[in-house]
Amino acid sequence: MKPISNKTIKIFWPLLLIFSTLVFALAANTYRTQHRWYDEDTLERGAKLFQDNCVACHKANAEGSADWKMRDANGNLPPPPLNGTAHAWHHPKATLVSQILEGGSQYGGTMPGFGHKLTAKDAEATIAFFQSKWSDSLYQQWVKRDE
Ligand code: HEC
Question: Rounded to two decimals, what is the model's pTM?
Fold first, then answer.
């Protein structure tokens, strides 16, 4: 057998590093969407749609307003968190989609509807984005409520 050359060793370690980084990244991505209704592509599309349409009110990580329970002088509620700390998780996906497409006026709220701009699939993708902020146990409670 030929002895392993120095050159081979020099190439081996960086290759191993690249390979393990790739495996790790893949595993982390799979973990993010494991046991969820959405896949990685939907999540990425949703993150972008959320960034473009929702962050002005619901903030970058869907954390919403801190004082979301306090009505303002006109009796309106501020944008609630969608990250699992308020009650978006009480609603089935279809209700969330209709809230996004039709807006809050159906419930006496002020959120604008996005039906002129987003499809139901787009709305679902934004839901995937804010659901990615939910813990697994909260997500499971949401799944159970919908059964
Ligand atoms: C102009 C501010 C504003 C924008 C932009 C906005 N929202 Fe809202 N959103 C609100 C407010 C305020 C409420 C509370 C109900 C109401 O007043 O209509 C709300 C409520 C919601 C709810 C219901 C939460 C619950 O706990 O029941 C969801 C879901 C939601 N928004 C998703 C979105 C998504 C997704 C987008 C982007 C496509 C978006 N919103 C854009 C202001 C906004």
Answer: 0.86
Among the atoms of ligand 1, which is closest to the Cα of residue 130?
35
47 lines ligand 1 (CB under 6 A): no
Can you give the residue range of the structural domain that contains 19? Answer: 1-34
Phi, psi of 5 (to 5 degrees): -75, 160
Q: Quick one: 47 and 82 in the same domain?
A: yes
**Domains identified in the chain, total number:** 2
Same domain, 121 and 51: yes
Spatial CA neighbour of 93 closest among 127, 118, 137? 127
Tens of pLDDT along the chain (147 residues) come to 677 788 888 888 899 999 999 888 887 777 778 789 999 999 999 999 999 999 999 999 999 999 999 999 999 999 999 999 999 999 999 999 999 999 999 888 999 999 999 999 999 999 999 999 999 999 999 999 877
